[in-house]
Amino acid sequence: MRKKIVAGNWKMNLDYNEGISLFSEIVNMVKDERKGDQLAVICAPFIHLNSLTKLGGNDVKIGAQNIHDKESGAYTGEISAKMIKSVGVEYVILGHSERRQYFAESDELLAAKTKTALANGLTPIFCIGETLDERNNGSYYEVLKKQLLDGLFGLTEEDFKKIVIAYEPVWAIGTGLTATPEQAQDIHAFIRSEIHAKYGFNVADDTTILYGGSCNPGNAASLFAQTDIDGGLIGGASLKSRDFTDIIKALNS
Q1: Is 157 assigned a catalytic role?
Q2: Phi-psi label, residue 104: left if phi above 0, alpha if psi -120 to 50, beta otherwise
Q3: Which of 33, 54, 74, 184 is 20 to 30 A from 175 via CA?
Q4: Active site residue 108
Q5: Is 18 helix (H, G, I), strand (E, B) or coil?
Q6: Buried b (16+ CB within 10 A) or exposed e, 49-70
Q7: What is the pLDDT of residues 113-163, one digit of tens each?
C-alpha cells in the first residue's frame, strides 16, 4: 500500500533561527493532524538539517534539497549523501525543475545522484515535469516518459520500489497557475502506467506519486481526492505553518 506524503520544500529561505521557529510550530501542529499512515516531510537548506532531525521525532521527517552524485572528493561547496545521512536525514529531493533549469542538471546526472542516494539509505523524491511550451505543443507525455526512462528506469525493481516521484508542472511553479485536478490526475495516471509497463502492476500500484505545482490549502483537497495523487510537494505554502498543516489536513478528507 503506497504511502501518503506531504513534503515541504523550503528552497533557499529562512535563516537558522527562522527555520527553527517555523519547524517547531509545524511539529506541534502536525501532531494533531497527521494520521498514522501518513508522512510529513520538511526538505530544508543544509544549515538546518542537523538541528531539525533532533526536533522532528516521529511526526515530521527531514529531507535535503540536493546531493552530489559522488561519494566524496574535491568538490568545493557540494555535500554528499553520506554527510546528510549522518545527521539523520531520510529524504532528498532530486531533479527539481529549478535544479534542472538553473544548474543544467541532466537526467543522466540525476540517475547517478539517485543511485548514490539509495546506496546511502536515502529516499529520493524524484521530480519530473514539463514546461509551458511543452504543455502547449503537446509533447509533454514524451518529455515525462524520457525523464522517467533516463532518470529512473535504469534501477532494479528492488531499488525503484524505494523511490517517491513528484510530478511538478513547471508552468505552475511560482506562477500562481495550477493544473486542474483532472489535468493532474491524467498525468499521474500516465506516470503510473509507464511504471506498470516497466516494473509491473504491483510496483506501479505501490509507488507514491506527489503533485508539486502550486499546491495550497485552497486546492489541496480536490487534488488529493484524485485516484493517483498520493500527496504533495509543497513550496511556498510550506513556509507558513498553518498553510502546511491545512494541506496535511486535506490529505485526510
Answers
A1: no
A2: left
A3: 33
A4: no
A5: helix
A6: bebbbeebeebbbbbbbbbbbe
A7: 999 999 999 999 999 999 989 998 999 999 999 999 999 999 999 999 999
How far is Cα 167 from Cα 184, in angstroms, rounded to an integer? 8
Give 68's pLDDT tier (boundaries 50, 70, 90).
very high
Cell of 30: 502536525
The torsion angles phi and psi of 52, rounded to 5 degrees, stand at -70, -35
Question: Which residue out of 68, 96, 105, 134 is catalytically annotated?
Answer: 96
- Taking the CA atoms of 237, 212, 26 and 12 in sequence, report the sign of the dihedral they define: negative
Three-state SS annotation for 109-170? HHHHHHHHHHHCCCEEEEEECCCHHHHHCCCHHHHHHHHHHHHCCCCCHHHHCCCEEEECCH
* Alpha carbon distance 21, 18 (integer Å): 5
The single residue listed with the C-alpha cell 496535511 is 248
Closest CA to 42 of 21, 58, 26, 28: 26
Q: Answer yes or no: pTM beyond 0.85.
A: yes
Identify the active-site residue in 98, 168, 188, 194: 168
